[in-house]
Amino acid sequence: MGIAERKGRDRAEREQRIVAAARVIAEREGWDAVTIRRLANEIEYSQPVLYAHFENRTAIVSAVAVEGFQEFTLALREAALGATDTGNALKAVALAYLAFALSRPALYEAMFILPTDLRFAVGDTRPELRAAFGALAAVVAPFCVDTDLMTETFWAALHGLAALEGSGRIRPSARDARISLVIQAIVVCGNDASA
Amino acid sequence: MGIAERKGRDRAEREQRIVAAARVIAEREGWDAVTIRRLANEIEYSQPVLYAHFENRTAIVSAVAVEGFQEFTLALREAALGATDTGNALKAVALAYLAFALSRPALYEAMFILPTDLRFAVGDTRPELRAAFGALAAVVAPFCVDTDLMTETFWAALHGLAALEGSGRIRPSARDARISLVIQAIVVCGNDASA
DNA sequence: TTATTAATCTAGCGACGCTAGATAATTTCA
DNA sequence: TGAAATTATCTAGCGTCGCTAGATTAATAA
């Protein structure tokens, strides 16, 4: 009697198709092009079907963001693993952060810029988001006394670099130099109680 | 024959009323509430009149952003002037930056987050935007060899802190500690050629 | 087979940005 | 001064949006 199971699978698959379509359209044409009608066409169902999966459009953006956080975490972990020492790991993660943000701008936008349902830095924060924070914290920890504090600040610096470069406000050509500056600051200042 | 002048003044005043209304509504109810119809009601003209002043809605957001940059520059300069030494100036400016961003979130959003017509870091960048960058550069300069590079990085760090705190992603309670960290990094690392 | 429930669709509401074309006010000039 | 040209402004509406009520079809249970 696997009928219910099959239905569940079909439903999950359709949901995944919605999220995937949203992501593809956003990356190709920007988030404004991700409309409910467009997604409905894409999955070959009528519009109300989308509302059986997601409460509203924002929830779809949020679902894409969660996917993004998963891949983001993997990318950061991989960068850290490929490094030979803790200093290299820090820099590799910073480079991976910016490469991620700038190579998938729409995904990054969903994760960090657009309004979503996601709640951060509170008790019920989703594990995908916690994991991303953890991946940053892991490479920062060797260089500081207050890991949470330093991770937040490191994250903010990287987000600032990504957001400003992504919107054309700072010179792309100086990206590496800016990252080096951030890394150096953490290495030099991290273990200072006066911080 | 001051008729043309009076008309010019009337027109400029009406334009200012549009921008002011947009700003007030955005700050009170968010940018989504800033619709052309709403603004038309507010200034007591029909909708097409708005298009005699601005090419489209984005141009209105941009106009608010430019106003924001003017006030932003003043706020940063004032903070720098009130300081006793260069280190204090740096910290005062950083604090003023975050206070500005978090106390007028809609204005800051127009300046740095929403899509606008504004062009940055290029030849035809508007003087209001250059001035804001200059106000940051002025307090950073004493601490570095490459002022542009350091200013971009400082700015990115502050923007990251503002954006992440403004969207609830990092703890408001740790704001001062994060700023101290950023300031310390610049003071300690700035004059290092290895950066 | 029929009654019930679940799945899906059609059609439309109110609001959006924006604009064509009509009207009213003003200015120009014979 | 009075008709013609120009400018200022409005009404009305196009196409699109997110979202949903209510109808319809398909699947399940009795």
UniProtKB/TrEMBL annotation, chains A, B:
- SUPFAM superfamilies in UniProt: Homeodomain-like (SSF46689), Tetracyclin repressor-like, C-terminal domain (SSF48498)
Q: Name one GO molecular function term.
A: transcription cis-regulatory region binding
**Which keywords label this protein?**
DNA-binding, Transcription, Transcription regulation
Q: Where is the HTH tetR-type domain?
A: 12-72
Q: Which residues bind DNA?
A: 35-54
Which PROSITE patterns does this one have?
HTH_TETR_2
Q: Cite the InterPro entries for this sequence.
A: Homeodomain-like_sf, HTH-type_TetR-like_transc_reg, HTH_TetR, MT1864/Rv1816-like_C, Tet_transcr_reg_TetR-rel_C_sf
The protein's name:
TetR/AcrR family transcriptional regulator
